[in-house]
Amino acid sequence: MMRFILKFNVYLLILLGLFLAACREEQPTAVLTPTPANTAVPNPTATIIPATATPKPSPTPLRPAIAVDDQTLTEGGTLTIASVVVPDPAWLVIHAQNDGQVGEALGFTAVAPGQNSDIMVTLDPLQATPRLVAILHQDLGETGQFEFPGPDDPWLEDGEAVSAGFSVDIQVNLPTISIADQEVLDDGLVWVESVYTRAPGWLLILADKDGAVGPLLGHVFLNAGTSENFTVPIQWREATPTLHAILLEDGSRATRLDYPDGDLPVIVNGQPVMTSFAVTLPLDVYVLDQPVANGKIEVERFISDGPGWLVVYFDEAGLPARIIGAAHVADGLNEEIEIEVIERAVTDQLHIQVHNDDEPIGEFTFPGLDEPRLYHGRLPFTTIFQTSLGNYLIAQDQPLIDQSVTIPFVVADIPTWLVIRSGPAPAEGNIFGAVWLPAGINRDVVVELDAEEVGETLYAVLHSDLDEPEQFDFPGEDEPLEYDGRIIQSPFTLLP
Length: 496
Known about the structure:
The protein is mainly beta. The chain contains 1 helix and 37 strands.
C-alpha cells in the first residue's frame, strides 16, 4: 500500500512538471535591456493616444452691436452708452439727428475688441439734438486717431451701419434771444428785451432778403450771462419790415467783430441761435438825384405801412406846388419804383410826398380820400431831389472777374455808351471795353474787357450815342459826355 502511494505521488509530480513546461513554451521570451538613467519607464496602465487628434471647435465670431438707453444731457455734456461689442479696435461716435437724417459727429471715443460696458462719450451740449445716434466706426487710418470724414468710415454689418438711436432730455441753459415786434423811430434804436449767452459774443441785427438773412444793420458786444433791456443802433434807412437777430461767438479776435468770416454763429440743436421780428419804420423815401428820362423818374426804395401812393409835386419857390405824377406802392418793402411825370412841368427840383390809399384801393383820388400820410400826428416834410444834376455814374474798386468789371450805377437822360479805358478822357489811352445803355437808371452794368493785360487803375467814361444807334463810333461822333464843361468819368482800382 505504501508503495502504491509513493508511485502515485511520483506520477503527480511528473504531470505537474510537464504542465509547467507547456506553459513556459506558450509565453514569448522577454529580452531584458538596461534602462538609461534619464529614460522614464512607461506606465503599463497608460492610455494609448490615436495617431490623429480630434480638432478643437472654433469660437463663434463676435457680431458688433450697440445698446444704449434714453438719458438726460446736462451742462457737462457726458453721455453713457450701456454696451458695445466689437471684434476689432473701433470708434464709438455720437452723431446728431435732424428730421430722421444722421448729421455731423458730435463726440467720439475708442473702444477695444470684445465686450465694453458703460462707455462715456463727451460732447458739446449746445450741439446736441433731441435725438442722437451712436454709430460704430472702423479704425482704418492712423491707429488711435479718429479720421472722419476720411478712412474711419462707419462699420457695416450685412450692408448696414452698426448703430443705435436714442433720445436725450437736454437739461442745459440754452442761449436765447428775446425781441418783440416794435416801432423803430428815426433815432434807429432797436429795443432788445433779453439775451442769454454762455460766453462773450455778439448780437447782430440784419435786414431780410427774400426770407433769409440779409445785410448787417447793427451790432453790439455782450458779456457772458444774461443781458436785459438794452438797445442796438441800426442803419434804419436800409432796414426792412422784417429784421433778424443772430448770436455770434467772439472767436476770432477778442471784442473785435469779424463777420461774416471769423466770428461764427452760436449753434444749438444744430441750428444757429436767431430770431425774427417785425418793425414799423419812419416814413422815408430813398430817391437819388436824377434827370427825367423818357418821362419817368425812379425811386430806389420805400417801406409802406399799408398800401399807399408816392406822389410827385413840382417845385415853386422851394415848396411843393402841383402834382405831376403818382405811383401805387404795396404794404411793406417797395424797390425801384417808376413814376411817370408830366415832363413839361418838371422843375430843377421835385418833391415826393406819401399819400394814403383809401377806398377804392389802387385808384388815386386826391383831392378827396387819399390824403397825405401823417407820421406821429404831423405832416412830414417832403423828400426833395434834383433833376438838373445831369448824367453821372458811380464806380467802385473791385477785382477783375472773368475778364469783366461792374459799374454799380449809371444815370443818363439819353442813350449812352459806358466805356472802360486805361486813362482819363480825353487824353490818349487804350479802350478795353464798351457797352450800350438806354436812357434812365442802369444798375450793376457789366463790361467785358478785350485786353488780357490791364493796369491797376481804370476809368469808366460816358460817351454819347450820336452816330448809328447802338454802334460805338469812336474816334468819331460818339464823343465823351460832359457836365459843366467836365467829362463824366470815374476812376477805380482793380483789387488783387
